[in-house]
User: Fold this.
Amino acid sequence: MHHDVAGQAVAAVGLLAALGYHLAATRLRSRGDRWPVPAQAAFLVGCLALWLAGLGPGTDHGTSTDAMVRHLLLGMVAPLLLVLGRPVTLALRALPAGPVRRGFVRALHSAPVSVLVCPPVAAVLDAGGMWVLFRTPLPAWAASRPWLALLVHAHVLGAGLLFSAAVCQLDPVRRRYGVVMRGAALVAAAAAHGVLAKLLWAQAGTVDARQAAMIMYYGGDIVEIALAAVLAAGWYAAGGRALRRGSAGARCGTGSSRCLEVAHGDDRLRPVQ
Amino acid sequence: MTGRSVAAGALIGVGAAGFVDEVVFHQLLHWHHFYDKSTPAVGLVSDGLFHAFSWFAAVIGLVMVADLARRRGLMARALAGGAFTGAGAFQLYDGTIQHKLLRLHQIRYDVDIRPYDWTWNVIAVALILTGLWFLWAARRTA
Assistant:
């Protein structure tokens, strides 16, 4: 068997991301800013999930079950944990003012990014890629072509990140989407995931392949519930901010737009929109 | 607030029915089969959607209850009415459309299925009637 270049690349991305995130968080704290420890912990565990997906046990003589566990780690578990770390927010705060930061902001506000983080688009890219991966001979072609395997891994991780970011909406993007649209995209993608897992189970010829399909089905459920919990928690927190704004507005009289509130997760004062 | 309590209850009811279906009938009793060879594609899609939606509904419904409690707007009878009606509706859909029409899977295999089907759907109707009674009581007191 050839060297698993794609797996090594995934593990390397995990290590580099952990290093970059740690440096950025340290930079923030050294200048007296706060950065939440739970977010950092989530991101670092996400990096560990990437490393396991790339070089974890069973990478060289894989059963279908091993491959499925790695696939879940790469496409669902790691993306959710990485998104919980709010890496874009951290980067925006850690990058010094200059051409790099300006370019980053311009890229975030660009038209392609705005289209990609639209929940239905992200869901189609994520679930669609999964169907192509499992319903075509793509895995067999990728097995003998390292560059194709690399491309497949990059798409699984990238689409997973995009979908988790679109559903959770924790990082700042120009266009925000409501709870209903994000929830509908989540349910549709989760349904596609469950249906595909049952089809794979139905066509499985071995005990190993059936077990892999079961892991896909129930593992997907667990991550779906976690995504729903993040979505619901965000909605609950936004309601709390609106309630506090309401009572602050009552205190200040009618000109509530001049009142200031402490923005969620941020220690700077911002004018109320 | 009454409407939102009913909605939160309905979501929790659907979620609870889905949870019981998965945990009791699939995992504990092993009566339901993961996949039934006679299931057409539309049955798989229906199952996938309802399975995904029931988890989502449970999470969102519980957080909606927390939100209503925070606003001191939680109506207990409306919540119960929504929950029983939601659970019964899901159970009835599962017992008639999914089990019978779409032949997703049967309640149990290698037995005479009729008493199981009748029990299943009678319980579903009883749940819906209980829910409607709560909703009626909620309207009277509102």
Q: What stands out?
A: The interface with chain A takes residues 34-35, 37, 44-45, 47-49, 51-53, 55-56, 59-60, 62-63, 66-67, 70-71 of chain B (CB under 8 Å).
